[in-house]
Specification:
heterodimer, A: mainly alpha, MetI-like fold, 15 helices, 0% strand, B: mainly alpha, 2 domains, two-stranded antiparallel ribbon
Chain lengths: 282, 328
C-alpha cells in the first residue's frame, strides 16, 4: 500500500517536471534558435543546419552589421526619447488623475472611471482608422512629439495600480497636512507623490515595456524610417532584399529584444505583481 | 465688483481649492481620452456612412458600406478565421491553468521555468514576426526538431503556405506568446488562496486533483471567466500573428488584417470604418452574452456550495477525531 503510494507520487513528480521541461523548451526554442543563428558567418549559415552550434561564439560581425544597416543607433536614441517623455508624462497624468478619483467624491467620478474602462476595451487597430485622420489634421504624422502625445494617454491598468495604492494611504496624512496649512497641490506633490514610488515603479516597467515594443502606431505615424524609426520599426529594414539573410536578421532581432530581457531579469517581481494587480481589478 | 471679490474668496476656500485641483489634474487626461478615443470613435461612426479617403472629397452613401461588409467575401467571411483563434485560446487557457497549478506549489527551479515561459510576452511584435518566419521556414527550426522526433522532411507541410495548416501555425505563435502571461495571472490568483484551506484538505486526504477541483477552481473562477471573455473578444479581433508573419497571404487574413489593408493601403476609409463598427457591435454582444452565461452557470454552482462546505467541515472534524484517537 505504502509502496503504491510512493510510486504514484514519484510518477506525479515525473510528469510534473517533464511537462515543465517540455513547455519551457517550447517557449525558448524559437528565441534560442535565433540566438544560435546570429553568430554564424554567411558561409556557415548556408551550409550547416540551423540547429547546429556556431563555430565561433565570439563572431559579433552580424550584430555590428545589423546595427548599422538598420540604423539602430538612431533608433535607440528615438526609442529612448519616446520612452523618457511618455513615462514622465504618463506618470504625472496618471497619478494626478488617480489622486482626484480616489480622494474626492464628486458627481461624475464613477462616470470617468467607466469612460476609461470602456476605452480600454476598444481594439486599437480599429481605432487607428479614425485616429489617423485626427493625427493628420493635427500635423502629427512624422512628428516624434505627436507620437509621444498620442502615447501619453493613461491606460486603465496604471490608473488601477495607482488607485489601489492610494486606497492604502491613510486619509489622516492628508488631514494633518491640511491642518498645517498645506493646499491640495502641496499635499499631492510633497506628501503623497513620494509615497507612491513602488506603484510608479511597477506601472513604469509595464508601460515602459509596452511603449518600447509598440510598433503598429509607430509604423503608421512615424513613416520616415530613416529619421524616425524606433527600435521595433527599425527591424522593417530587413523586409525585402535582405529578407533571406537570417543570420543578419536574427542578430537584429536579438539586439532589439535585449533591453526587454535586461528589464525582465532585473524586475521580474514588479512585472508579475503589476500584471496581476492590474488584471484582477480590470 | 462685489461678485469678483466673492469669487476670489471662494477660490481661496476649501471648496474652491478642491475644484481647482480637480480641474488642474483632470483636464489633460480627459482631453487626451477625448482626443484619441471618444472623438475618433464618433468620427468612425460618421465615416462609415461616407465614401471617402483621408484627404479629399467625401460622398454620403448611406448604408452602402455596411451592405458591402456583409456581401464582400473577404470582409465578413474573414471572421471564420476567428474560430482557429478561439480554439487556440482554449488550448492556451487550459495550458496556462495546468502549468500555473504546478508552479503554485513547491517546484525546484520554479522561478526559472516561470521566467522562460513568460518571456515571449515581452518580445516586440516585429521581432516575433521574424522569429517565426525563420522558425517555420522549410528545413529550418521546426522541421529540424520534428526530424529529431523521427518525422521525414518530405512528409511535413509548408507551415505558412499550406492552407490546410497555416492558420494553425499562426495560432500556435499566439499561444506561444501569451500562455506564459495567462499563467502568471493564474499563479497570482492561486497564491491569493488561504493556505489553511490546502492544509485542511491535506488532513482530509484529498488528492491533488480534488484539491484543484474544490479549492483552486472555485477561488480563481473570476479571473478565469475574465480571461475567457477576453480571449473570445481577442479571437474576433485577431490581428498580430498574420500581420507580422504572413501579411495575410495564403488565406490567413483575419478580419482586422483585411480591415487594416482596406483602411491604410487602399484608403477606403468609409468601408473600413463600417467594418470596425460591425465588429465592435459583435464584440459588444458577445461580451454581454458571455457575462449572462457565466452569471447563470455560477448561480447554479453556488447552490451546491453550502452542501460541499458542510461536507468539508464534517470531514475535517472526522480527521481531527481520528488523530486524537491515534494520539491516545
Amino acid at each position: 500500500m505504502i509502496n503504491a503510494n510512493k510510486i504514484g507520487r514519484a510518477l506525479l513528480t515525473f510528469v510534473k517536471y517533464l511537462s515543465l521541461i517540455f513547455f519551457a523548451f517550447l517557449a525558448v526554442l524559437p528565441v534560442v534558435s535565433c540566438f544560435i543563428t546570429a553568430f554564424k558567418t554567411d558561409e556557415e549559415y548556408q551550409t550547416t543546419n540551423v540547429m547546429t552550434m556556431p563555430v565561433n561564439w565570439f563572431n559579433f560581425d552580424n550584430f555590428v552589421q545589423a546595427f548599422n544597416k538598420a540604423g539602430m543607433g538612431r533608433a535607440f536614441i528615438n526609442s529612448t526619447i519616446i520612452l523618457v517623455c511618455v513615462l514622465f508624462f504618463s506618470v504625472m497624468i496618471g497619478t494626478q488623475l488617480a489622486y482626484v478619483l480616489n480622494r474626492f467624491n464628486f458627481f461624475g467620478n464613477k462616470l470617468i472611471r467607466a469612460l476609461f474602462l470602456f476605452a480600454s476595451q476598444l481594439p486599437g487597430v480599429a481605432m487607428q482608422i479614425s485616429v489617423y485622420e485626427i493625427m493628420y489634421n493635427l500635423g502629427f504624422i512624422n512628428s516624434l512629439a505627436g507620437y509621444i502625445i498620442m502615447m501619453c494617454g493613461t491606460d486603465i491598468i496604471s490608473i488601477y495600480i495607482y488607485i489601489q495604492f492610494f486606497e492604502n494611504i491613510d486619509y489622516a496624512l492628508d488631514e494633518s497636512a491640511i491642518i498645517d496649512g498645506a493646499n491640495y497641490f502641496t499635499i499631492f506633490y510633497r506628501v503623497l507623490f513620494p509615497l507612491l514610488k513602488p506603484a510608479i515603479v511597477t506601472s513604469c516597467i509595464l508601460k515602459g515595456v509596452g511603449t518600447y515594443n509598440e510598433y503598429y502606431c509607430a509604423n503608421l505615424y512615424l513613416q520616415d524610417k530613416k529619421r524616425l524609426a524606433t527600435v521595433a520599426t527599425s527591424l522593417y529594414t530587413f523586409v525585402g532584399p535582405l529578407g533571406s539573410k537570417y543570420n543578419l536578421i536574427c542578430a537584429g532581432v536579438i539586439i532589439s529584444l535585449l533591453p526587454a530581457l535586461i528589464v525582465f531579469i532585473l524586475c521580474q517581481k514588479q512585472i508579475y505583481s503589476g500584471l496581476t494587480s492590474g488584471a484582477v481589478k480590470g | 465688483m462685489k461678485h469678483k471679490r466673492s469669487f476670489k474668496e471662494w477660490i481661496r476656500s476649501r471648496d474652491g481649492q478642491q475644484v481647482l485641483v480637480m480641474l488642474a489634474f483632470m483636464v489633460v487626461p480627459l482631453l487626451l481620452l477625448f482626443l484619441f478615443t471618444y472623438l475618433p470613435f464618433g468620427k468612425m461612426f460618421s465615416f462609415s456612412f461616407y465614401n471617402m479617403k483621408y484627404v479629399g472629397a467625401r460622398k454620403f452613401v448611406g448604408l452602402k458600406n455596411y451592405i458591402k461588409v456583409f456581401q464582400r467575401k473577404d470582409c465578413f467571411g474573414a471572421l471564420k478565421l476567428s474560430l482557429y483563434y478561439m480554439l487556440g485560446s482554449v488550448v492556451q487557457l487550459a495550458l496556462a491553468l495546468y502549468l500555473a497549478t504546478i508552479l503554485s506549489f513547491k517546484v525546484k527551479g520554479g522561478n526559472l521555468f516561470k521566467g522562460f515561459m513568460f518571456f515571449p510576452f515581452l518580445i516586440n511584435g516585429i521581432a516575433i514576426g521574424f522569429i517565426f518566419k525563420f522558425f517555420y521556414t522549410r528545413g529550418f527550426v521546426f522541421d529540424t526538431v520534428l526530424q529529431w522526433c523521427g518525422f521525414q522532411l518530405e512528409n511535413l507541410p509548408y507551415w505558412l503556405k499550406d492552407q490546410r495548416i497555416n492558420n494553425f501555425s499562426l495560432v500556435g505563435t499566439s499561444v506561444w506568446r501569451y500562455f506564459g502571461q495567462n499563467m502568471v495571472l493564474f499563479i497570482g490568483a492561486i497564491m491569493s488562496v488561504d493556505s489553511e484551506l490546502y492544509e485542511a484538505a491535506m488532513l482530509d486526504g484529498a488528492n491533488r486533483f480534488q484539491q484543484f477541483k474544490y479549492i483552486i477552481m472555485p477561488s480563481i473562477k473570476t479571473i478565469i471567466t475574465l480571461n475567457v471573455i477576453l480571449s473570445i473578444t481577442g479571437s474576433l479581433s485577431a490581428f498580430e500573428p498574420p500581420y507580422v508573419i504572413t501579411d495575410g497571404a495564403n488565406g490567413t487574413g483575419t478580419y482586422f488584417v483585411v480591415m487594416h489593408e482596406i483602411a491604410h493601403t487602399q484608403q477606403k476609409v468609409g468601408l473600413a470604418s463600417a467594418m470596425a463598427i460591425v465588429l465592435l457591435v459583435i464584440i459588444f454582444m458577445a461580451t454581454i452574452a458571455q457575462k449572462l452565461f457565466f452569471k447563470y452557470v455560477f448561480k447554479n454552482a453556488e447552490d451546491e456550495d453550502p452542501r460541499a462546505a458542510a461536507r468539508r467541515d464534517k470531514a475535517i472534524a472526522r480527521s481531527i477525531k481520528r488523530q486524537e484517537r491515534k494520539a491516545k
